[in-house]
Amino acid sequence: MARSTGQKRQATQADIDSDEASRRTRRKVAEEATHNKRRTRSSDQSLSSASAKKTPSPTTPPSARKKIVKKGIARPVKKVAKSNITTPSSRNAKPAAKTAPRRRSFSKVAISNGGNLNDGKASNDDEEEDSPDGPSYWLMKAEPDSRIEKGKDVKFSIDDLKEASEPEAWDGVRNAAARNNMRSMLQGDMAFFYHSNCKTPGIVGTMEVVREHSVDESAFDKEHPYYDEKSTRDKPKWCVVHVQFRSKFNDPVTLKELQKYAKPGGILEDMQTLKMSRLSVSKVSKKEWDFIHTLTDPDANGAPTLKSATNS
Questions:
Q1: Rounded to the nearest 5 degrees, what angle is found at the Cα of 304, between the Cα atoms of 303 and 305?
Q2: Which terminal residue of the chain has fewer beta carbons within 10 Å of its beta carbon, N or C?
Q3: Residue 225: pLDDT above 80?
Q4: Helix, strand or coil, per DSSP, at residue 103
Q5: Residue 282: partners with Cβ closer than 8 Å, 6 or more residues away
């Protein structure tokens, strides 16, 4: 009995050991299967993410798409310049006709207000009235009464111009807008002589531009009333034109008389010297030039007598 009982116990222990080995084997197989399953899943995820990076989805924000392009995953789309695009209408379009060049190109007139210059524009009417082949017209101011500057008298009147034996250089202009107008003058242009800074300012006669602009030498003279240390011979700032007497009016066309025709709707409404009183050299339209001549009778040495106008 004792032996048989021992044999039964030994058999039971062997069964336990066999069951334990079987469990270990099953656990090892299960762990290997789980590991392989995880490795397969991670591989699938990496492949899907790589394909997503290569082709941005429509919902991908623009900023993300730019980053993808920078990394070289996707090529940027080349932009085609508009000028290189040929359309049927552009192929059949005719080239614009070339217009004949004007005789001159006038500079923009600037308004001088207490020394501060602002760009201004000449009226379109004035440009249309000027003939490309005829002269242009101007108004130039000078002081007829004595005024001493640096020990020199700066007066210059229509009589001084009339008595000159040769063309006079119109010097001393130190306003950029007036200088630019002088640079636009051509030989044969006509100008009104205007007496300014006097008891009765107004237009007193006419003169002709006989020599186009050149360097104003007075700007280099330290003794001259209008010396400018910023103007050098290497880079001169100022210029002169040479003018010659043509006529003196028997009766000046005063500033007050000009202003009567400068009201809204008046023929001198847009006259630059009335709009820009501080500008010493200004543009005059052909219409204004002709009308002002009707307001006075030049003397025998000047232009033909024209009929006086009434303010109607």
A1: 120
A2: C
A3: yes
A4: coil
A5: 109, 138, 139, 178, 181, 272, 273, 276
